């Protein structure tokens, strides 16, 4: 018994570890994308500044010798007002680096920090998330969750919860029978019959499994087998009115089948 509990605990722990690893991977991917976006924006800004600076012509002195680039502004002379070099200086004078940086800064700050904040929020939510119960407690919690979903009409969700429950404890006649009932609601009669058969393999006297398998077999047209199941259940609980009603309904289906069957020709 202790060995089985340790095995269940290990399965639940492995499930939690895999889930945590997947979430951490998503967080790291978001942070990496955020860093790439920041580097891209920084590169674009540098290119803008360099492109604006490239419009400045080299400074010349007497004799036409190029002496290098200086960013210090000089007052233009009246004789060179129409010179193309003066136009280049004027273009540089009109370029305001601070204004350009300010324009870039006016972008919504959330565009830059939103991915990082979202990653932080997910890490915080993960840390605050309660650790699921381990072992027998986890199995009972999943079965109870399945019961609530079934009561709310979420039969597909109930099937999923009962399946998780069975993953934690395979030989569980109650969970198998409950999942069979959810399958009946979904009109998946073959699955319902199979689950009831598995449950009865664990506990042959489980009345609900006999009753539910009878309903599944009756829906599949296996009326004789269905009647045998409901009669076996009535032997265990003779005063059960629901079983008596089920037996009556199955007998009616049998009579209808006999009446509809073609008569064999007399040779």
TrEMBL record:
Which Gene Ontology cellular component annotation is one that this UniProt entry carries? Answer: protein folding chaperone complex
Coiled-coil zones: none
* TM stretches of this protein: none
What the entry lists under InterPro entries is as follows: RPAP3 (IPR051966), TPR-like_helical_dom_sf (IPR011990), TPR_rpt (IPR019734)
The source's domain of life comes to: Eukaryota
State the UniProt keywords alphabetically.
TPR repeat
Q: Could you identify this protein by its name?
A: Uncharacterized protein
Organism equals: Chrysophaeum taylorii
